[in-house]
Amino acid sequence: MSTTTLPTSTPGTSAGALLHLVRTRQAETRGDLSRVTGLSRSSVASRLASLVDAGLLLEGEELASTGGRPAGGLQLNPDANVVLGVAVGRSRSQVGVFDLAGREVSGDTRDHEPGISPEKLMPDVVERLGTLLAGVTAPVAGIGMSLPGTVDPVRLTSVDAPVVRGWDGVPLEPWLRKVTDAPLHLDNDTSVLTRSELFGRVPAAQTMLVLKASTGLAMGLVADGRLVGAGRGHTGELGHTRVEAAGDLPCRCGATGCLETLAGGWALVARLQEQGVEARHIRDLVQLALDGEPQARRLLREAGRHIGEVLSVAANLLHPEAVIVGGDMGGAFDLFVAGLRESLYANGHPGATRALRFLPSTHGEAAGLHGCAALAIDAALAPEAVDARLRGRA
Amino acid sequence: MSTTTLPTSTPGTSAGALLHLVRTRQAETRGDLSRVTGLSRSSVASRLASLVDAGLLLEGEELASTGGRPAGGLQLNPDANVVLGVAVGRSRSQVGVFDLAGREVSGDTRDHEPGISPEKLMPDVVERLGTLLAGVTAPVAGIGMSLPGTVDPVRLTSVDAPVVRGWDGVPLEPWLRKVTDAPLHLDNDTSVLTRSELFGRVPAAQTMLVLKASTGLAMGLVADGRLVGAGRGHTGELGHTRVEAAGDLPCRCGATGCLETLAGGWALVARLQEQGVEARHIRDLVQLALDGEPQARRLLREAGRHIGEVLSVAANLLHPEAVIVGGDMGGAFDLFVAGLRESLYANGHPGATRALRFLPSTHGEAAGLHGCAALAIDAALAPEAVDARLRGRA
DNA sequence: CAGACTTCCGTCGATTTCCGGCAAAAGTAT
DNA sequence: ATACTTTTGCCGGAAATCGACGGAAGTCTG
Fold it and tell me: By residue range, what is the domain housing residue B47?
């Protein structure tokens, strides 16, 4: 007999762990919990009672019977708290209020001048959050925020954000303290995008590449069901990988030959403009492509091809089961993926690409914002955090 | 305050978990264990008593005092069991007996005809293991075995081993049952090499790339302190990534343009032969390079450069803290790494390569075999396995 | 060098937690 | 209607855990 490695998570048997199993759909009845954890029914019941007392758990309606008394369904009380999401991009910011199930209660997206300073944007964010929270009675359990570039998740500042100048080293917490005292969590934009694919359910695949193809190019990594590099504040730099085809084209990063100069959103827009087609942002280009504009369609497909070349290296290394296509280019999914497929199948090792699926990001344009919420919710409902909360209440 | 993600492992508080903490040097006194797990001294003591009873734990001599009574050191009893390692390569097989600390008790390395069949090799392996076990009294706790290519760790067979023909689908367990009834664990050769770097200590880095550069080229991945894709039976295909510089050189895999055609051991040897220098194996070439043969030196450094190009993609994606250089080419560490450095610093993103260290594999030529032992030991001493063992005894 | 102080270790009773059986509840099949 | 299945709450016995206490083994100080 061979002992294979842990198939599912065994994160403990505390009340918080039970809630985690319930909200990740690994168990939805008392019986399930007892089986999964090895705990007796009575122990499960007593823990669940604490959770219900704390208002975190709902005993939903009964499930379909399997021949006897139907089990009472268990589910997280999504309205026990709300969390706030703040996704800041180069030229757009999104804020939202979410329930604990990750559903958006209310939200607000605004464009701003590219590379806006924190001193200009943050007061605006604070005001918008205040407005969204006006009618909300549930307490705020946390804030999840994302920035492009590298962040310091401990000091809660940007570290190296090439596309939004003036943010590096600026502490963000003071602004958000005006909204709530709940803990702030900061991560990279691609990292939260990846989180949005993992949140609150059995993920599409245990190992997957989560591509963010917008103005810049980046990639998040899920290996064995978990986000690689979680909490380190950066993600895969895809855009500044040297590719032969880029020759010595100058990149916005200062180097030459970067993938971005061929396939980054800013480069595609520049190409399109050179050809006399009006477009200011990669979103415009994607829209044109969807409308059938031939140059835009060609550029997007080519971008997919170039990105796929670099992706194929990652695919060879990791043998992912799925590639999630996020970012603005994901808006023209079929077209873009056709390009990706071409070079992935051409360059990838057969074993690595045989079972590869391509999927659009679950939350589309709001994926990053949903990921911010996921960041805050996962922290607030982490088993240890829940246990601490119950201890405080008891 | 921000809640950062788990810095160290909290795998539980069972006796097995305590042993795990001790043998991974995360704790070496009762006080440490109490602090790390949150358990009271008495609970720790009772668990440790079971472990001592079972012969798994030794109460070593006292440690240096910190101002009061010195703590009694705890350590795994390395002689409670032995494990067997079997590392099969294309033209060489290594077997060994190891204690639970991963030290080689005895071992045996033999060359064989390239691509030997299991029907010819396995009886030989069985016989050699029998010889090595002759004077051993400790019971065998497991066998760890590695093969090149992709394996099925559940069915315990090779799945796709391009370099050793005739192994695919052949069950290996029956042969080894002649040696012992202890569980057999099978994994890929690069995977066990990576395990050898993680075994029984705080690893050199939490995120690292473990390169295996021999006849073929592959890479294992450690992210956040754990082996990525553990138990899936394959590792990163580095060798069959398309690189521009390879043009349409034919690869042994059937495709063209693979990195291996430029930098794989077999290709380097072929080049050297073309230039009239005698060499049959990459190990010969490495030895020539160490002796100062200029062509061999040039080829190795160039190989490093080519491999570094592909590695830089991985480095950009993962921001590793270290690159471990294993495989035969690691024998000429300085030379080979000089090549790696060149292209990693040229092609890598500054943030990704700033703090990058290059380290030789800890166990050199025997790294794979040590990794096989690590595979078996980690399985035998996994917290759950230890707990089960204690239950059986009680 | 003796005594105070610090740190570590084993034991033991009180308390908390946990398990498993029992009976009732709520459905489904016959 | 009756037998069967599955779930659930309850309760007493069993087991594990905690924290305190006393002793042991060093270091530090006067």
Answer: 15-76
